[in-house]
Every structure is written in structure tokens, then in C-alpha cells.
């Protein structure tokens, strides 16, 4: 899994052009953006809250003096590679197939959330993603002290990491819970004190939020939903280990969704759901036929190339590219067509698992879903007629044979006790 994570990292670092650290560059402008604030913080400039509260990574970069911006970019790539390795190990718990795991990464890359990690290497998203994935690995292995330590460290990178104290509550680990809550509150207060006064972050309201929500994961949404339904419906996954895994997945999705209403970059923030969605995608693609898996994956590749500017789709960029909204407005037809192909590919790749899940739904629920309850009731065989069915007659014959066999054995044992000279196979 480490080699696969390294391959994914190399492929997408090469494919996705990164923003430049200067205010004006040939690809993007980052002045007055989140990236500019973190770059300024690494250079020692005062930064308003909440950006100033995420001080750990910029403080490490500031140790390199004039090269702090390059160090910040390097640390982001380093944490991104570590996050991919951790997520790959979480994925390995859901499937042992390298092919399925690779296809899960391809479906995930059809959304903007994953690609933006490579497009903007000056944010705290990569380090926060690593903290989320590391908490998952520690929790599944019951390293609750390590979970508490990661939570305390994580609030200096992304304050939403404090939400993982829910996992410690579920396991009733009161000592670790107290340490995580106390340490997180202390570091959050320190981050507020060291930052300038910030302004309130107003939520974005409108249809654009739903569009960004879908494009964040794109074709990975239906595949991950299929994987989640498999975890819920298949009895062999109801073990202690799978329960811990499900709790981590649910908590990760809950924290990610809870943070979306207070931010404008909905697509980008969905990257924190990757420690849950990538393994769920692998689970949703398991048991699939190789040809349907290959075709579905190929159909999702155009979305990878068009959902954000890549080196292949770069000729289609507008003359002035300052925000992704201008990219979407210029290439709306291409992006829409590629998204439709990716969705069709996800359904085609998982159709066998969809049928498998449907077969496990109780018959009454299936009847209600199809609206055929009355028809099934009319066609049902009455109970009095079931007594004369072939299965019932066969069952009664088997019971009689079994009864006669027991009677014969009883008579034989009595005869053996009365005539000690009698043995099976010896006749007078």
C-alpha cells in the first residue's frame, strides 16, 4: 500500500499544476487568499483568527528563515504523502485487491477535493488530512492514548479535529477524553491569543453550495454509498473491528459535513472526508467483475482531467484565471459531460454490488419499494395448500424415515441386552 500511495502522489503532482507563491503568477493569483495568509504567517506576519490559530505548520516553516515559503510547500507535500499512505492502509482493511484500491483512488480523483490538495500546497488541508487518517489508524488499533494526543495536536492545524473526542466517548475512555478536551481547549485559547482579531465567517447560501458539494467527490459519492450499505447489510462485517471502523467513518463524515456550512470552499473542505470515502469506495467496488470495473473506471478519467485545470486541459483555460469559478463558467459543457460519464461509470462498476445489496433487503421491503405488495399477496399460496406441497410431503417422509430408524435402533439395543451372544453380522 505504501508503493501505491507513492505512485498516486507522483502521478497527481505531475498532472496538477500548483499555485505559485508570488502574488501574481502565470496560473493563479493567491493574494488575499487563505494561502497568502499562511505564507505571511510563516514569514512572521500577524494573521487574524481563525487562520492565525492554525499556527503549527507555519511555525515550523518559519524556522527556515527566508526560505519559509519553500519550506511550507515542502511540508505540505510531505504531509500529503503521509496522508495518502495512512489512507491506503485504511483502504487495505476493506479490500486486499490492489486493482480495487487503485480504482477507488481514480474515482476519488474525479472530484475537486482530492485534486485541490495538489493544486494549492500552501494550505493546512494536507496536514489536517494526515491527522484525520492517523486518528483512524490509531482508533481501529485501540491506541486510545495516541488518539487523544493526535486530537490535541490536530487542533493547531485544523480546529475541527476536536470533534474526534466523540470516539473516546463511545469507548468510555474517560482519562483520554479529559486529556483531549483539556489540551485542545488550552491550545485553541493560545491560538486565539496569538492571532489578530478576525472577522466572522459567514456561510454561503444558495444552489452553488449543492453544486460544490457534489463536485467535491463527484463519482466517488455513489461508489462510497454502495460501500457503506455493504458494511451495514452484510453480517460478516459486524465484528468488533468493523464496528470500530464504522464508528471512525461515521465520525469523520459527521465532522466534515458539520464544518461545511461555516465555509465557502465547500469542494475543498470535503477533502477531510477522504479517510472514510476512499475505503468505502474500495468496499463498494469489491466483488465487482473486472471488465465492469475497468470500463467504469475508464469512464471517470475525463472528469479527472476537466474538473480543475490540469496540464492536459490547460489549453482550455480562460485568458484570466483567478478563481475556479471562471474555469467552471468557461468549460461548463465539458465539465458537465465528463461528470455524467463518471457517474455512469460508477453505477456500471458497482451494479453487481447494488444487486447484491438489493437481494439482502427483506422481501416485504422490496415489495414496498416496487409497489407490488398487493400483487405478491394475491399470488401467495394459502397455508392450507402449503401442507400438500412437494416440499411439505418430502419433509414428512424424511421425518417418518428418521423415526423408523430410531425405533429400529432401540429394538436392536434391547435384543443385544437380552441375548448376549447376538452380535451384528453373526447369525445363529
Instruction: Tell me the distance between the termini.
Output: 75 Å
Provide the low-confidence segments as ranges.
23-27, 383-388, 401-428
Q: Helicity level, as a percent range?
A: 55-70%
Largest sheet report: none
Radius of gyration from CA coordinates: 30 Å
Rounded mean pLDDT score: 81
What class would the helix/strand composition place it in?
mainly alpha
Per the principal axes of the C-alpha atoms, what is the gross shape? globular
What are the main properties of this structure?
428 residues; mainly alpha; 2 domains; 22 helices; globular; disordered C terminus
Architecture overview:
The protein has 428 residues and is mostly helical. The longest helix is centred in the last third of the chain and has 29 residues, at 390-418. It has helices at 2-15, 34-42, 56-62, 68-92, 98-109, 112-119, 125-140, 144-154, 165-170, 174-194, 207-217, 220-233, 240-259, 266-269, 274-285, 290-306, 324-330, 332-359, 363-370, 373-379, 383-386, 390-418.
Topology (SSEs and partners):
Elements lengths: L1 H14 L18 H9 L13 H7 L5 H25 L5 H12 L2 H8 L5 H16 L3 H11 L10 H6 L3 H21 L12 H11 L2 H14 L6 H20 L6 H4 L4 H12 L4 H17 L17 H7 L1 H28 L3 H8 L2 H7 L3 H4 L3 H29 L10
Helix pairs in contact: 1-4, 2-3, 3-4, 4-7, 4-15, 5-15, 5-16, 7-8, 7-13, 8-10, 12-15, 12-18, 16-18
Amino acid at each position: 500500500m505504501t508503493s501505491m500511495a507513492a505512485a498516486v502522489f507522483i502521478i497527481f503532482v505531475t498532472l496538477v499544476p500548483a499555485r505559485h507563491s508570488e502574488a501574481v503568477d502565470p496560473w493563479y493569483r493567491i493574494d488575499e487568499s487563505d494561502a497568502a495568509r499562511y505564507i505571511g504567517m510563516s514569514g512572521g506576519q500577524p494573521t487574524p483568527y481563525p487562520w492565525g490559530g492554525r499556527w503549527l505548520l507555519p511555525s515550523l516553516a518559519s524556522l527556515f528563515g527566508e526560505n519559509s515559503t519553500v519550506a511550507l510547500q515542502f511540508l505540505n507535500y510531505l504531509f500529503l504523502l503521509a496522508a495518502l499512505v495512512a489512507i491506503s492502509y485504511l483502504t487495505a482493511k476493506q479490500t486486499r485487491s490492489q486493482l480495487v484500491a487503485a480504482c477507488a483512488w481514480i474515482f476519488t480523483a474525479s472530484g475537486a477535493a482530492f485534486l485541490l490538495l495538489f493544486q494549492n500546497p500552501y494550505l493546512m488541508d494536507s496536514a489536517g488530512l494526515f491527522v484525520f487518517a492517523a486518528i483512524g489508524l490509531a482508533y481501529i488499533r485501540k491506541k486510545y492514548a495516541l488518539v487523544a494526543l493526535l486530537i490535541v495536536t490536530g487542533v493547531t492545524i485544523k480546529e475541527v479535529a476536536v470533534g474526534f473526542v466523540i470516539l473516546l466517548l463511545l469507548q468510555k475512555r474517560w482519562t483520554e477524553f479529559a486529556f483531549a478536551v483539556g489540551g485542545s481547549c488550552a491550545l485553541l485559547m493560545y491560538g486565539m491569543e496569538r492571532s489578530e482579531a478576525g472577522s466572522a465567517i459567514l456561510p454561503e447560501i444558495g444552489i452553488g453550495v449543492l453544486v460544490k458539494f457534489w463536485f467535491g467527490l463527484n463519482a466517488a459519492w455513489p461508489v462510497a454509498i454502495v460501500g457503506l450499505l455493504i458494511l451495514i447489510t452484510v453480517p460478516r462485517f459486524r465484528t468488533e473491528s468493523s464496528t470500530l471502523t464504522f464508528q471512525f467513518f461515521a465520525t469523520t463524515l459527521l465532522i466534515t459535513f458539520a464544518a461545511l456550512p461555516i465555509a465557502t470552499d465547500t469542494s475543498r473542505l470535503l477533502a477531510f472526508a477522504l479517510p472514510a470515502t476512499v475505503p468505502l469506495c474500495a468496499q463498494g467496488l469489491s466483488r465487482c467483475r473486472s471488465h465492469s470495473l475497468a470500463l467504469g473506471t475508464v469512464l471517470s478519467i475525463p472528469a479527472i482531467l476537466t474538473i480543475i485545470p490540469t496540464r492536459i486541459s490547460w489549453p482550455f483555460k480562460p485568458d484570466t484565471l483567478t478563481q475556479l469559478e471562471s474555469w467552471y463558467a468557461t468549460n461548463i459543457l465539458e465539465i458537465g459531460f465528463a461528470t455524467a460519464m463518471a457517474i455512469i461509470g460508477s453505477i456500471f462498476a458497482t451494479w453487481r454490488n447494488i444487486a447484491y445489496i438489493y437481494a439482502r433487503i427483506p422481501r416485504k421491503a422490496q415489495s414496498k419499494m416496487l409497489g407490488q405488495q398487493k400483487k405478491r399477496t394475491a399470488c401467495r399460496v394459502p397455508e392450507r395448500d402449503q401442507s400438500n406441497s412437494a416440499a411439505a410431503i418430502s419433509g414428512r417422509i424424511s421425518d417418518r424415515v428418521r423415526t423408523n430408524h430410531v425405533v429400529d435402533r432401540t429394538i436392536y439395543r434391547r435384543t443385544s441386552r437380552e441375548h448376549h451372544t447376538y452380535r451384528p453380522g453373526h447369525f445363529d
